[in-house]
Amino acid sequence: MRxxxxxxxxxxxxxxxxxxxxxxxxxxxxxxxxxxxxxxTFTLSTNGTASWVLxxxxxxxxxxxxxxxxxxxxxxxxxxxxxxxxxxxxxxxxVAREKQKASIQRAAAKSLRELANDYSDKVFPSLxxxxxxxxRHHIEDVILPKLGALPAREVDTADVVRLIxxxxxxxxxxxxxxxxxxxxxxxxxxxxxVVTANPCAMISVSAIVGKAEPTRQRLNLTDTELRVLLPxxxxxxxxxxxxxxxxxxxxxxxxxxxxxxxxxVDFERAQWxxxxxNSKTGKGFTVPLVPAVVEWFKxxxxxxxxxxxxxxxxxSRRMKNNxxxxxxxxxxxxxxxxxxxxxxxxxxxxxxxPHDLRSTARxxxxxxxxxxxxxxxxxxxxxxxxxxxxxxxDYMTERRTVLERWxxxxxxxxxxxxxxxxxxxxxxxxxQAA
Length: 434
What we know:
The chain is an alpha+beta fold. The protein is 49% helix and 10% strand.
């Protein structure tokens, strides 16, 4: 007794369809299903996808095997494919289940690199730009060099623990981020039926590497500290001194200034364009340059020695790490120099990082009486919520006015001149270094 049939009846049926009819149906765009005979069916979905399906019964239950899409698989090819599938069905093979098993086997053979690439393609478009940038770094530079070649299904708990231990030796915080990225890849793999389990489950990063140090609070330099720091900047070199002053005056992120190119700086219009690729938010931003800052940029020009970057890396670093090709300066070098300078100044200026210059600028803008919205736009912060929806004004004029006042304050601190409240209710920030 047979347990399989095709098209409800194994008797030979006359082939009903033609390419002319199929093209007509596709042009009409109406969803339909038309039988060609012996279970072969042409289907057109509501979204316009045209496919071939073989309908049959196995063990008394209705089954379907998708043969391919039209016109990738022509009518003639679909009939031949259906003929071969019916032959297997007559031999007692459930062809739909056979195809499913083959798909599972292909998925099981995927390497972690292939799974990670699929995760990146499918998930990254829905994540914030800053998250994508960070996670891509952890995947491509940390996870894949160690585990990428392994079949995804063979990565086990021991592999994860070993990787986290290695990363944790350098940074416990980075170990947490790498673990999160790896776990998200495997969650994606489970949803795609590439893996059957997440080897990151039931693992505690803190149990492996210990708890990460609390996130360091941003430091705001007081006007007292600025009056000590700014006159001392020449000790770290002209280029570094100008970099610090430009960062303070423009409120820019260190990465945005590091990647700045002379093509982005318009001296005639007195503005600096931060393109989408250089912006942390992924959206370009124009910074107004007040006269003093324009002069500081001009002073950097000869120091760039013809480079397209405003702040190029030293030749020795280019030769060592980039094959002699142009590259921007290394941010960590500035951080190291600033720490040494603060150590030389004793307890007059607290140790700070380049990023602290932004929080310092933001605090002083508030003290200078600058409105919340204008101050946030000076730092290229998203206004968020309804403000971002209804207020599309970029406050260029207001930002230029504010930055002129802020730069004048910086210059007063550098020169040692007295700074007093003016008619615009300028209120200086006072305080002593801790």
